[in-house]
Amino acid sequence: MSESRFAERWDGLSGAPRQAHLTILQSYMTNGAPPPASQFSAEVLAELARRDLVHVRNGEIALAYPFSTSPTDFLVRLGDVTVYAVCAVDALGTPAMVRKPAEIVCNCPTCGARVCLNVSSDGLTVENASTSDPRVWAGVVAVESCAADSQCKSMLLFCSPEHLDTWKRSQPQSARGFDLSLAQGVQLGAAVFRPFLHAQTSTAAS
Ligand SMILES: [Zn+2]
Hints:
The chain has helices at 3-10, 15-31, 42-50, 88-98, 161-170, 182-205; strands at residues 54-57, 60-64, 67-68, 74-78, 81-85, 102-107, 114-119, 126-129, 135-139, 155-158, 177-181. By secondary structure, it is an alpha+beta fold. The chain contains six helices and eleven strands. The strands form two sheets. The protein has an eight-stranded antiparallel β-sheet with strand order 1-2-3-5-4-6-7-8. The protein has a three-stranded antiparallel β-sheet with strand order 10-9-11. It folds into two domains: 3-68 and 195-205; 74-193, Beta-Lactamase (2-Layer Sandwich), CATH 3.30.450. The chain is globular, with a radius of gyration of 17 Å.
């Protein structure tokens, strides 16, 4: 994520919108689902949408990065709670954000095979993975107002280098992006998502 995009998300986020964001993330973390959108004012939800943090669709909170309300190919287990992530990098960044170990299950876009892995509580270490060399594809695309509709659609996890290659060859235009090892994908996810709870805590304390 670029510096300016980071600033657009966090600069001046305070008061009711910050509290609402925290409440929404906590709800996904403890219930696997968001609270009712009606719990928050339209102004607060509009502010969080403008910052591309939370999006409401059809009157319900549809996503609050890294979490998605509807099922995706990226499942995260935090203790007994099962929650879905918006994309592969979001799933891999969740343990660093919540500071808990997590089991992550992704479906390879090429063959549909489940790739299961565990990330340690510091969010930085892959403890085991069900295939020997899963690859994380971090696609480079222009981000519109909602990353979930653009960038996240090209953040994928493949069971093997061969299946990443197969997918790349199937793309109508040559796919631009980074081919990352699982360890690199976890580092990227941790860098993006660690501030989501941490920034709020530190700002709230000031
Ligand atoms: Zn595969």
